[in-house]
Write a structure and sequence with these properties.
With about 400 residues, the protein is mainly β. It has a 4-stranded antiparallel sheet with strand order 3-4-5-6, with no helix packed on it. Strands 7-8-9-10 form a 4-stranded antiparallel sheet, with no helix packed on it. The protein is globular. The chain starts with a strand and ends with a strand.
Amino acid sequence: MRNNAGSFEIVPGAIPANSRNNVGGRSLAVLDYNDDGLLDLFITQDRFEGGQGVLLRNKGGFQFVAATASANLPTNIEGFGVSAKDLTGDGRGDLYVVGSNRLFIANGNGTFREVGAKAAGLVRPAPDPNRPKVDFDTGVSVGDVNRDGLPDVAVAEHYASSAKGRMIPAVSLYLNKGLNSKGNPVFQDVTSTAGLPSVASRNGDVNINDYDNDGWPDIAAGVAVSRTRPALFRSLGLTNGVPRFAVPAGVGEVKDAADAQGQAHHGLPVAAADYNKDGRLDIFFDYFFNNVDGQLLLRNETSSGHWLSVSLGRALGGGIGAKVSVYRAGGLGDPKALIGQREIAATDGYTAGVPDDAHFGLGANTAVDVRVTLPPDSRNLATNGVVDLKNVQADQYLRLPSGCGSP
């Protein structure tokens, strides 16, 4: 749909005709897979609608063409959620599709290679052998939870067997341990060590964000802690290099007559955005069971540390795929001074669009140093593809390159 000064219109023929129920998409990812400066789309299709995810190349002028085969992607990628963030550090978007647990790494020439997700350490709970079709994952979020500069992965389950009493992790967390000898990412499952609980409840969604602006990313999830509240696992910092999270009371235990089968409550999506521009990320929560509680906009009233939000204008490529790193003032580029690193994206979790900015909690820091690393399609727009800023004041929305401003 084209935005015409605040109103939208359907663009005829924007997406090629197909036999997949007009794509039948569950989630989409936005990336420039071929480095031509135009944003492309990967759309997941679930197993109930044919299981044929599709990569669409942007030709310009709101016209897209099928590019799945030419990008060396198989045509049988089923899934619910997808992340297109860079997992290898080369600046190019990789595809991790949940619902089928398939991982595709960008080769740097407009094609992908499939890497066994299990071999990479992204091992998911086995489905119920009696009803495997209804045990699947839906949400995926990528972010640096332990502040080592590497993107970690969180996955949200949506297993029917958990709704029937099976205990499995509502959110599974995988730390990025770097690359193997073939240049593929390796992950470590730290779910249990991090204190993330197993529940007898579907979840549905997950995102990694710093909701109290203390400088440590938290995890929000669709599994309920009340009739109208999703779970928020607040970061407690690191123990022996592994992040630890506080578990809210009642997670996965909320039930009432909303569901005749007695399932525990959950909702999706759990989407984050600072709608009132006060520097604290709020949540839009779609309550799954009925329209009495409905779609809820939840204002964040948590006590907050300092914060910074960074976005990029068209003069720097628009932002999608750019990585923003924030350091303590005077520590630009020093890994020991890193407060956080985020890649700017258009989507996160499951079925949720997000603002194209990078939000950081800064804790007690009132000023920071900032490094923006542009993606390959935009690296000619800045010296060596990098924008460095020193002594940036906290508590503002910073839009580069032209200016900044408080909310």
